[in-house]
Amino acid sequence: MPKGYNTLNSPYGRKARVAAIETGQPDVIDWWFMSREERAKEMSAVNPLGKIPALVLDDGTLVVDSPVIAAWVDAQHDGEKLIPESGNERWAVLSLEAVGDGLGDAAIAAALEGNRPDGEKSEAAIKRNVDKVRKTLSYLNDRAGDFNDPPKMGEIAVACAMGYMELRGVADGWRDDFPALAAWYDAIQERESFKETAIPEGY
Known about the structure:
Blueprint: E1 3-6, H1 11-22, E2 30-33, H2 36-46, E3 54-56, E4 62-63, H3 66-75, H4 87-114, H5 123-143, H6 153-167, H7 174-177, H8 179-188, H9 192-196
Parallel strand pairs: 1-2
Antiparallel strand pairs: 1-3, 3-4
Helix pairs in contact: 1-3, 1-6, 4-5, 4-6, 5-8
């Protein structure tokens, strides 16, 4: 069975896990959830970029990073695809996935900078990334009424990024400012795929 390398709090790794559950193949990847120390020590031997998630197929082929792994998951089943195979819908889904991943990038950057010791953190960097988060939330709020239900890969990426954003408290007051998006986010969290992959307390 292909082996996946992951952490429990990665929005990108979560995206691949949600995709597997949504396509009815929860065990398509044997995930190893790494601690921060294990990741720092061992990931570069698996993925030269040192990034998670990473996937090693049965023949040793390395698959990186989350958009490619999620696409691999989607290719392993014969049901309705999370990534449409052709047409403008395909590009819309992939573009929304990229927006979701970008939202995750900005949320992670803001959270990491905010956790630096006083005197070392850059308030300008925090503000720059929080502004990116809020602008993206505004964009998504305007489009939430048109999101796919059930979700496709774009919606999955957005919801996973928002889960990390909310966990780290990156955008205070976002629910009041973006109510349509908040309602959509709360609804998608009720899906079994999101319940099973929720980030545990303490992460």
